[in-house]
Specification:
It is built from eight helices and no strands. By secondary structure, the protein is mainly alpha-helical. It has two domains: about 80 residues, no CATH class; about 50 residues. Helix 3 packs antiparallel against helix 4 and helix 7 packs across helix 8. The relative contact order is 0.09.
Length: about 160
């Protein structure tokens, strides 16, 4: 039987930090994961790798292997593409969330820099309000503050 997720467990904490915590370890039915302590159904990287290995090395069907490891067939194909392209590390889920300040385009940053040059006393909240007036979307004042700090670093 698969180990249950206990938030206080140090391994759970480590797996979560590395984005490797399997949200559904109870769905893993493969004997490997119930027979020994070496295999841990909570470790998503291990689960995905063993699923791929079972198909490639042991000749298991994709459908059966995906079901045994608690994943879907599309998850198998996605894992296989990632593994074939970039190896074991590619089986880790990508970080969630935006990769950059997507609202603060070059045009918006230039607008903010010009506003600050015209009136250095403007606060980030006021700058965010003016961005909304000019461009029609909301920006958090902290995002404005960070963007301007990055611009200062670039100019140095």
């Amino acid at each position: 039987m698969a180990k249950k997720i206990k938030p206080s467990d140090p391994k759970v904490k480590a797996l979560r930090q590395r984005r490797c915590l399997n949200p559904h370890p109870q769905k893993v039915k493969a004997l490997l994961f119930s027979a020994t302590d070496f295999f841990d159904a909570r470790d998503l990287l291990q689960v995905k790798y063993e699923m791929l290995r079972q198909v490639h090395v042991d000749g298991q069907t994709i459908s059966k292997s995906a079901a045994l490891f608690g994943l879907s067939r599309p998850s198998f194909y996605q894992a296989k593409r990632a593994f074939d392209a970039a190896g074991l590390g590619a089986l880790l889920p990508a970080k969630k969330g935006p990769r950059r300040a997507h609202k603060l385009s070059t045009e918006v940053i230039e607008f903010l820099v010009q506003l600050c040059a015209d009136d250095p006393a403007l606060r980030p909240a006021e700058l965010a309000r003016r961005v909304q007036q000019r461009f029609g979307f909301e920006v958090h004042s902290r995002s404005v503050e960070r963007a301007l700090a990055r611009q200062k670093k670039k100019r140095r």
